[in-house]
Amino acid sequence: MRSDEERVKLLLAESGTAVGGTERVLWELATRLPASRFDVRVWLSTAPGVDEFAAALAGRGIPVTRLAEVDSRRDWKGMFRTWRALRRAKPGLLHVHHVWPAADRYLAALAGLAGVPHLVVTEHIEGRAHSGAQVRLKRRELARAGAVTAVSAAVADSLVRDYGVDRTRVRVVPNGADLPDDDAEESRARRFRESLGAGTLRPLWVCAGRLEEQKGQDVLLEALAEVRRRGLEFTAALAGEGSQRPALERRIESLGLTPQVRLLGQLDDVAPLLAAADAVVLPSRWEGLPLGLLEALVRGRPVVASAVGGIPEVVEDGVHGRLVPPGDPIALADALEGLHRRPDAALRLGRRGAQRVRESYTWPRVVEAFEAVYDEVLGLASFAPDPASPGAPAHARTRRGAGR
Questions:
Q1: pLDDT for 74-89, tens place per residue?
Q2: Is 187 helix (H, G, I), strand (E, B) or coil?
């Protein structure tokens, strides 16, 4: 058994090509896990979209390796390069974060060949592999993992459905949010509202996310056109970049929404824009558990979101926000009209949403949950009833060094 006093060499790996929710989880783990217990290193792809993220990690003293993903069984050079890098790194624990089920498909097998003793796999999104061979690779990876986690119960259920994983092996560790600095955000939020022309009778609706098919901004545009046909005034701001931007620009023009809709591009800090919103819209077609949802809720913003992935696990329709079917612009327009006509009800939704996130979805809770997973995989966890909850089921209680 590993000594409590020995630092664990932890390798966090993912192959995303742009900064999103998965990278945020890596950041929180890399910067929050106690240095007295974990020697953390990060592997990222060679994509330019994560250059700034890699530099930020390095600026915090986190060693970062950029390594191209091996995505073909014919890429023998890539396999050898990855195997050799694993042999050199000698991690005691490899934690692979999947941005898509078919990603990093050879990393777990190469880690086994390189002698990496422990593996944790985290799934961030629902989705199926593209071929029978990928399914077989995925099943072997999940079977080898000492622990499998998912950001939502919906993602966990997809692993059972698509890959035959025993549901009792999958733990749900949801994403988190930071508590906002209201004073620091207030003046910038006010400037956003002024520059976008928002007011009491002209609400500001914000959609923040990558401009990709998954995020459903095209559905939002159709809903906004319907809201305008109903005679309601509004301003909508879409923050983010992606492959769908040219198509969205054309659709904004063809729907005659140019006066009402602004594409703001990628923002260095989206928090003040969220704080400025009268409502935040997440019209996604599929999701794991979007950070934008939690970050909007924690600021007390009313949310209208598609009922996909882990979103309904956080938001109860009519209690913490409004849920609509994915890909349904009329239902989305109805929900936005309801918030427009009942701002008092919208404020109540926002307050209850903020309370929900502050109680259950914060980054310290996320990091503690992963630390408990690591301890169990490493043999540092004991099982005992929770002394604070007599009669509750047994759960993991970890034995940690004094440096915790």
A1: 999 999 999 999 999 9
A2: helix
Q: Which residues lie below 8 Å from residue 298, measured CB to CB, with a gap of 6+?
A: 177, 178, 179, 180, 354, 357, 358, 361
First to last CA, the chain: 19
Handedness of CA 234, 240, 241, 242 (dihedral sign): negative
364 is written with which tokens?
Answer: 């310290």
Q: If we measure between CA atoms, which residue out of 172, 76, 229 comes closest to residue 373?
A: 172
CATH superfamily, region 182-360: Glycogen Phosphorylase B; (3.40.50.2000)
389 Ramachandran zone, left/alpha/beta (phi>0; psi -120 to 50): beta
Taking only Cα atoms into account, the Rg of the chain, rounded to an integer number of angstroms, comes to 22
Given a contact cutoff of 8 angstroms between Cβ atoms, the answer to whether 227 and 196 are in contact is no
Q: What is the mean pLDDT of residues 49-56?
A: 96
Q: What was the pLDDT predicted at 387?
A: 38
pLDDT at 129: 65
Contact between 337 and 226 under an 8 Å Cβ cutoff? The reply is no
Chain Cα centroid distance, residue 401: 30
Q: Lowest-confidence range among 84-93, 102-111, 168-177, 393-402?
A: 393-402
pTM for this one? 0.88
Quickly tell me which residue has 């949010």 as its tokens: 177
- Calculate the dihedral angle through the C-alpha atoms of 186, 187, 190, 196, rounding to the nearest 10 degrees: -120
Q: Which part of the chain is CATH 3.40.50.2000? A: 8-176+362-398, 182-360
**Tokens representing 58?**
């390095």
CATH 3.40.50.2000 correct for 8-176+362-398: yes
